[in-house]
Amino acid sequence: MRRIVLSQTGAGSSAVSPMNLNTSPFNVGFAVIVSGTANYTVQHTFDDVYSPTFNPSTATWFPHPTIAALGANADGNYAFPVTGIRVTVNSGGGTAQLVLLQAGIQ
């Protein structure tokens, strides 16, 4: 998978990056780079992000187990399949930039 970069400035959520469920291993590595002041959480969903009726505002989102409510740069991974990933800025006017890399075919 190509490198994907999502950003959110100020409170709110970034766009959703759909994940490729047809890769083995699924593994996704990510980093969040903060500029300014921002408290952020990386979130994932199991909802069908490819459905034409998918709506990020009504989807069920789960916080990453270790990359939640942070204010500094951090990195982590997903070793098990999720359908979509995003970053949410909980507070602050800064920017949280989420960089994703998924193992498998480019």
What this model shows, in words?
The protein has a single domain (4-102), classed as Jelly Rolls, CATH 2.60.120.380. The protein is globular and about 35 Å long. It has no helices and nine strands. The strands form two sheets. Strands 2, 3, 5, 6 and 8 form a five-stranded antiparallel sheet that branches. Strands 1-9-4-7 form a four-stranded antiparallel sheet, with no helix packed on it. The termini are close together. The protein has strands spanning 4-9, 12-13, 17-18, 28-35, 39-45, 61-63, 74-78, 84-91, 95-102. With 106 residues, it is mainly beta. Helices cover 0% and strands 46% of the residues. The model has no long low-confidence stretch (mean pLDDT 95).
Gyration radius from CA atoms, angstroms: 13 Å
> First CA to last CA: what distance?
4 Å
Biggest pleated sheet: 5 strands, antiparallel
Estimate what percentage of residues fall within beta strands.
Answer: over 45%
Number of domain units: 1
Q: What is the tally of helical segments?
A: 0
Total beta strand runs = 9
Q: Overall pLDDT, averaged?
A: 95
CATH class category: Mainly Beta
Class based on secondary structure composition and strand pairing: mainly beta
SSE diagram, text form:
Layout (H helix, E strand, L loop, with lengths): L3 E6 L2 E2 L3 E2 L9 E8 L3 E7 L15 E3 L10 E5 L5 E8 L3 E8 L4
Antiparallel strand pairs: 1-9, 2-8, 3-8, 4-7, 4-9, 5-6, 5-8
